[in-house]
Every structure is written in structure tokens, then in C-alpha cells.
TrEMBL record:
GO molecular function, one term: glycosyltransferase activity
Transmembrane segments: 12-34, 46-71, 326-350, 362-383, 404-424
Source organism of this protein record: Metabacillus indicus (Bacillus indicus)
Alphabetized UniProt keyword annotations: Glycosyltransferase, Membrane, Transferase, Transmembrane, Transmembrane helix
The protein's name: Glycosyl transferase
Assigned protein family: Belongs to the glycosyltransferase 2 family.
Amino acid sequence: MVQKRYVSVKKKFWISQTAAFIWMLFSVFLSLPWLRELAELTGLPLAIFIIGGIAYIPGFLNAFLITSLLIDRQPPYKISSPEVPVTILIAAKNEEKNIGTTIRYLADQDYKGSLEVIVVDNGSEDSTPSVALEAGTAYGIPVRLLHEENPGKYHALNKGINETMTEFVLTLDADTLLHKSAVRRIVSRMISSPEDVCAVAGTILVRNSRENLLTKMQEWDYFLGIAAIKRLQGLYQGTLVAQGAFSLYKTSAVMETGGWPEAIGEDIVLTWRFLHHGYRVYFEPLSVAFTEVPVSFRHFARQRSRWARGMIEALKEMKPWHQPAIFAKFLTGINFIMPYLDFTYTVFWIPGLILAFFGHYWIVGPMTLFVLPLTLISYLSIYSYQKKVFRELDLKVRKNISGFFFFVLSYQLIMAPVSVWGYIQEVFRLKRTWK
């Protein structure tokens, strides 16, 4: 039997960095005529600023992502069926329509250890508390109800963590449904990991994708985009968001770092605090949950601008160069330049696309088509991997052709301006909106 050669994470990192740098140099060489033509109109510094934001840096990051995913190999669990007790923490406000189903899916888990559910009611004005208790009784899973009147998800989560007695705590949104093996797999990843791994983010996918075109596009964003970025970050042991919607934490690490902070992106800031304290954060692609995504553009814009704003909150508290691990420096550093990329895309790419329709190819032109093959290769690689994940979980990938078409061609046209609006909100300290 031929033994597979082990390649360290550090070597994988530098292999991917080298491949991405070579691709970027090739891109710069190809773009010289474009650069000269644009420089005649704008001047060389602004031309470099524009093309760097819409082509050079995105190309580098995309090449880094593809190379990393191609050489990624998820290590097997050391223990595949753990029995350690776990507390499930659900912060809920006005979730009477969803909380009962969420608890039913928890009761159907194939996990052999004991599970206790703590539901923290955050000032609900409906029957969320009584529905949660009734569901626990009906489905045979212990549900403890706490009340937190101070508004804000972070208040509710901190209330719950202070009442948690188990080594591990799993946070779950009240509208998120777990695959039957989700708890077992995410706990298996945690206890199979080194001691300094303090959190594992689960995979979140869309459960209401049939609603309209917006939810259909979001299905591909979660399935291809977010999942790929999580895999990349997990490979380099620095998942940047152990999302509150579905993640497992070591209770002691949450307490040590001060719990969830008073921030609109409380899970982002908490995760970066973990990294700053020298902890590592993993990602488990086989631990899957399905969540409700926004069905209206207004709700979608609020959610994504909130995510962008949360990233700025994390950057303000912890600078990338202050992170102790090189992987964390690089991964958080990518977020440091995201406002620049979103700004150039919004201010230059979108107007350039409009100009191209009138025959002016100063910013968007025939050379831009070179980006499409690389994008499609990356999506094909991610799709192939995700299909294997679904097969192992006895799930099927839904055929959503219209959603994929619009996701590839127009999703970023929506996302970049929404993210820019989130950055502006944080810079000017506008009113925070959690929903």
C-alpha cells in the first residue's frame, strides 16, 4: 500500500501564494495595453488604482482560493461518534413560527451524548417562550427557558453562556434546521482537533431557495461562495466567522475572551478575539444546517450591510498585523482590503459596464471576459466537492439553473454597493439594525 505524502499546512499556504502571485504577474502582463489606454484618460496612478481593485487583487485572491481548494484534504475524525454532553444555545425573538420545528430537528439528531437546549427569549411579543417549552415536551428533549429583556442578540447569548455547565456549547438560530448528523459531526471535528482549537463553524445552506429569484441566487452564494471561503479559511486554521447561526465553541474560550461583544457583528468580533488570543478556529463541511434567507431586497440589503459593518467593527478592534499567526494575519488582512475592492467595483466597474454597452471599453472590455473562465473553474471545483458532501449526507443538489445564471452574472452587482453602504454606516456610526 502506497502511503500518501503529507504536505503541511504551511507548505500548502506558500504553494497557493506562489501560484496566485504568478497568476497575478501574468494578468499584469496581459493588461498592459488596457492599463496604457486607461492611463491616457485618468492618469497612471488612478488607472492602477482602478485596475488593481477590479482585476489584479481579485485575480490573485481567486487564484489563491482555487489552488488552496485543489490541495485541501480534510483529515478524518479521530472519534466519529462522541458522547460528551453539549448545550444548544438559541437566542430567540418573535420566533413562534420557527422555534418548534428547530427543536424537533434537534430531537432527531443521531448524537449519542446528552443534549440540553437553552432558549433565551430576547423580549418576544409573541408565543415564542411557550412554543419552545411545548416543543421540548412533545419531542422529548430538555428545554430550559431564560429571559433577557435587554435588546440585542449578544445580550441573549451572554445570558445563555453564563448558565452553560457543559464543556461545549453550540449556538443555533431559531430558524435554522440541522441535518440529522450535524451535531455528531461538528463535535467529532472539535474533539479530533488540537487543544488550541476553540471553535468549529458548521456549514450553512439555504432552506427557502424556491421563494423567488433573490433566494435562488442566495442558494448558490451559500453553496458555492460562502462554503468555499469557509473551506479556505478552515484549511489555514483561521475561519474568520464562527457564525452564531450554527457553530460549536469551547465554553471556557468564550468566557476567557469576554463573551459576545456589544457589536452588530458579534460573532465576527468574537472569532477574531479567539484568533488574537492564539486560538485556532476550524470549519466542518459535513456538519450542515439549513437556514431561512431574506426574501425581499430590503431585508437582504440590511443583512449584508450588517455583515460588512461587522467586519469593520472587527478590524477596528483587532488589526491584522496584531494577529499572532501568519495565517490569521493574511486572512484578516484580506478583509482589510475588502472595502477598497467593493468601492472600486461599485464606483468604477458598474459604470464601466454601462459605458461598454455604448462602445466605450475604458474599464470593461473584451479582456474582461478572461475572468469568466477562472470564475467558472473555481465554481466547478467547489461544486464537485459540494456534490460529494451532499452524497455522503444522502442529500441531492437541487437544479437551480436560473439562480446560478443570475448569481454568476449579477450577484456581485448587488453585493458590492450593499457592502459599501455597510461600511458607510459604520464609519458614520449610523443607527444599528439587527433585523
